[in-house]
Write a structure and sequence with these properties.
The protein is an alpha+beta fold. The chain has one domain: Roll (ph1033 like fold). The protein is 21% helix and 30% strand. It contains four helices and six strands; from the N terminus they run βαβαβββαβα. The chain has a six-stranded mixed sheet. A hairpin with a 6-residue loop joins strand 3 (47-52) and strand 4 (59-72). The longest helix has 13 residues, at 141-153. The chain is globular.
């Protein structure tokens, strides 16, 4: 199993939206490095932190499971869709997506401002300059466990998942 951090603007799609849906396609990613992670590396069963970006505060909102490995992002083929790519074909897709399934929402956001103080994250892509715009980041097990430990210490992990 691998660990990931996936980012979404909560005004567009947030952890509560995923909780209501259960499982959703993680589509519309138009960054080649993030695309390569989805296409080549993300596997069913991997875990990911759901990160609210461009928010106040930005930070980890919960946990998801990668429920389907990378496959062609269907939005690239539809001219009426905002993620349409006229250079993509079904024979040679340019963009990929994965399916994600809700596992748990934190009781509050674990803000980036707090994560910056974790020594275990010093070498993570999350804190590396130039990687701020990546919507999908791989995490090493030590990064995952450090974030989970902080979430537990701050009492952000509920004993039971709240229903919506």
């Amino acid at each position: 199993m691998a660990y990931w951090l996936i980012k979404s603007n909560p005004k567009c799609f947030n952890i509560k939206d995923l909780q209501r849906a259960g499982t959703e396609m993680w589509d519309g990613v138009r960054n080649y490095r993030a695309r390569n992670f989805m296409r080549d590396d993300m596997k069913a069963g991997d875990k990911a932190f759901f990160y609210h970006s461009s928010a106040r505060p930005s930070g980890v909102a919960g946990i998801v499971i990668i429920s389907k490995a990378g496959y062609a992002d269907t939005t690239q083929f539809h001219p009426e869709h905002r993620h349409y790519d006229p250079k993509a074909t079904e024979e040679e897709p340019r963009w990929y997506m994965v399916d994600v399934t809700f596992e748990q929402a934190f009781t509050d956001i674990l803000p980036l401002s707090e994560l910056k103080f974790l020594p275990a994250l010093e070498d993570s892509l999350l804190l590396r300059k130039g990687c701020e715009q990546l919507t999908i980041l791989p995490l090493e097990p030590k990064h995952w466990h450090a974030i989970m430990d902080m979430a537990e210490t701050l009492d952000l992990i509920a004993d039971e998942v709240d229903s919506i």
